[in-house]
Amino acid sequence: MEVEISGHAHEKIKMLREHGVTISEKQLVETVLHPDKILEAWEGRSIAQSNLDESHILRVVYIKQKDKIRIITAYPARRDRY
Predict the structure, then answer these.
(1) Is it the case that residue 23 has pLDDT exceeding 90?
(2) Per residue in 2-30, is it b (16+ CB within 10 Å) or e — as a string?
(3) Which of 5, 49, 60, 64 has the fewest CB atoms within 10 Å of its CB?
(4) Would you say residue 33 has pLDDT above 90?
């Protein structure tokens, strides 16, 4: 299935990098395609989660359309929070 990364998600990767957190486009795609956990969110969106390190996870917000997955945004979070 095709995976499209939104402009907002690209900007988020850039912003995180400026703050010392490196997340790649490949990590976003892998998280959506092979998540550790999936949660239903608002307005048809889903959140895929994968491990970043011992204390952090990567959360990727996406929407599944007919023939593709569109990644809306992504962010790291503390594992104990989710």
Answers:
(1) yes
(2) eeebbeebeebbeeeeeeeeebeeebbbb
(3) 64
(4) yes
